[in-house]
Amino acid sequence: MRYQTPYGPGQISFGGPLTPVVKKLLIACTACFVLQTFGQQFLGLNITRIFGLTPLLVVAKLSLWQLVTYIFLHGGLFHLLFNMLALFMFGCELERIWGARRFTKYFFITGVGAGICSVVVAPTSPAVTIGASGAIYGILLAYGMIFPNRQVYLYFLFPIRVKYFVVIIGAIAFYSSITGAGDGVAHIAHLGGMLFGFFLLKRGRLKSDIENRYLRWKLDRMKRKFKVISRDDDGDEGPTIH
Prior knowledge:
This protein has about 240 residues and is mainly alpha-helical. About 65% of the residues lie in helices and about 5% in strands.
């Protein structure tokens, strides 16, 4: 699937104007971070423990809401800023192309899917996972598939095409999930967000291919039903199509 954009293959985009859904997500994540920071002090609530994703609680206590609420919580200011910057840079253009409804659906499916992967891999883990990183990795994958030749700056210094950038971060997430690096980062969630995003994007293409094949088959079948019958040369009527 190809998209018409105002940028050439090698040009650089910084996200463009802020779009409605991205704006709401930015506000929601920021508000939740403030609530996290001051919730214990002023409300006496451990927001992270209640609304963060704890696989053990999801399985044993059916705390299914955590699969959604963990997306809006973050582990620190830099964690929040990085995710929100990536959401703005890559999410705005996807929303303009897809529309608000499809973008919102994609964001939450990849975010929840990332959480599901964390639960499936370690269902008895008491560790708390927080952050929109799973959905952000899904957005990065989609951006890389739609705009493979766009350029981003790795560590804000080194220009690299988006398709290579996505491969690199995907490989890092995969390697880290296998080695189980104890760096406090939920690599399984990152990888899960990309996997769910990939299947979502491929499913749409597969559905389109199936529909096109079905239409071609139907047209061929209709053509075989028609016969062209010619009358004798001295007949007044021309060919008749049945």
